[in-house]
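Example record

The entry below shows one chain as it appears in the dataset: sequence first, then structure tokens.
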Amino acid sequence: MHSSSEPHTIRDQYQHYIPRFILRRFQTDTSEKRKPKKQRQREYKLVKKNPSLSTENVLVYDVVTGILESRPVGMVYGEMNLYKDIRNGTNFNHIEEKLSRLESDAAVFVNNLHAAVSGGRNVCVTRKELGIFREFLFIMFYRPGTYCKEDHPENAPLSDWIRKRKQDMGLKDDKDVWIDDIQCHIEHPHHVLVAEGEKALEKIGEAEAFVTAERIDPDINMYALEYANVANEYFMGIWEATDGSEFVIGSNSFGLWGGLVIGGGLGIHRIFVLSLRLVIVLRNIIVQPAAPRYVNYKGKGIGPTGFENKDWTIEKYRISDVAQKDTYTFKITKPSKKQTRAVNNVSLLNINEGGSVTFASRCCMLDTMHAYFDAPGHRFKKSKTKYTSLLNELLLVHPATRVSTQKFP
């Protein structure tokens, strides 16, 4: 048995960038009741040795190979040792463990959303619960991706900051910077990240100036600044797929942008797929909020028009203990079929290189594919060849005219 000062045994782990609690909602067979955690853990160990033993499977379409297959939930949308931090001498997988705790809280939140949908009621959460969930959404957008890659063209404004971060923290490569930033986000609660980010923003100016800047000050608190920018510039809404339709999920279906604000680099919408039934939509405050919400402030003399106590500011109030008990009530929005298809189109159009797509119903996916192939625009035309094999396979079950791969050069 190791003492706390001794390093843990180095063991390879398959670590997910899409949590299993989300993937399970896309299972091809959901007739079985949810199994106890210990039973799932035992089965996971067996599945690692023999994938055919898995009873939790999802359909995965690989856009590179053009192959659709059923694969175990425990062995998709992840990488070996994704979060391993070899700088930590006592626990190489401490990031994975901290992420697991955050995911556990997020899973409770998501379960409550689905319960509200099933019961036909609104969603009521505390400020603290909402903050934890917003932190989860941000990290989902952050993993994995091109972030913290010093030589990536889209990171040109950040190159000085990344370089200095490596020097100051003794980080040897881009992945170390990425791991360090994830740790910073996990270890600080939502309201602290927002407060620290707002301090950093004061040095830059308006949020648009930060997004469109050609160079970011390398001394700025970048991890908090980026977090506060998303938290303050976007309202949260909850969308339920229209009847007869389902959302699809891809390798990077978390935080994808839809639409751009004129004159700035901020997206109008950011989409986070939670299940075949629900997506979270963050809408830019420059337009109308994505869904109505009602706030019940627990502090005395506090309301939507301001504070009776002149010593209070919104910044001071929201980090107080009493503010964490404020409640937010969200109305779940059911978009039209056209809007549901538009969400799926964003996911399909932006699948990253070497990525995959998962869905539950072949019938619903066929409808999604038809809508995607009918979508106008040059970007859609170029990307349609990635899905021709999938469409043809779906058509084997639902008779119709096949689409030739030669149709979209």
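Notes for this example: Residues 94-119 form the longest helix (26 residues). The radius of gyration is 22 Å.
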